[in-house]
Design goal:
This protein is mainly α and 133 residues long. The protein is built from six helices and four strands, in the order H-H-H-E-E-H-H-E-E-H. It has one domain (5-131): Winged helix-like DNA-binding domain superfamily/Winged helix DNA-binding domain (Arc Repressor Mutant, subunit A).
Length: 133
């Protein structure tokens, strides 16, 4: 499994906001400069994260973005699911069916289920606070 740039950059942006908001806000330009990410791309990612309730925007002079929750209340798992969708490694782990039909007799079903569960549990155990310096 390989995460997209959407997930990697979105997580970097959230970690950057958590590390740099210090009671104020962080602008997309600041994040873009620190991480070499396109500001336009960051706008798209932040819109998704804002809609999901992870960040708030502040308008006006000194405006920018800040976390909508405490860093310890936001997990990497939550962020990845918002940015990537399901963290299941294969489709059969979600609804009992796969591209070839019923997964009930599939010899590898339990492997994918265990791996997906492990990935989700690990991602849910890491918070933004854990990523702070």
């Amino acid at each position: 499994m390989k995460l997209s740039t959407r997930a990697r950059y979105g997580l970097k942006a959230m970690a950057d906001i958590a590390a740099n908001e210090e009671g104020g806000t962080v602008s997309l330009n600041q994040i873009a400069q620190r991480h070499g990410i396109s500001e336009n791309y960051l706008e798209q990612l932040i819109a998704v994260l804002k809609k999901a309730g992870f960040v708030k925007s502040v308008r006006g002079a000194g405006g920018g973005y800040k976390l909508a929750k405490k860093p310890e209340d936001i997990t990497v798992g939550e962020l990845l699911e918002v940015l990537e969708g399901s963290l299941s490694l294969v489709e059969c782990g979600e609804d009992g069916t796969c591209g070839s039909g019923d997964c009930g007799c599939c010899q590898t079903k339990e492997v994918w289920k265990k791996l997906s569960t492990s990935l989700k549990e690990t991602a849910e155990s890491i918070t933004l606070k854990d990523l702070l310096p």
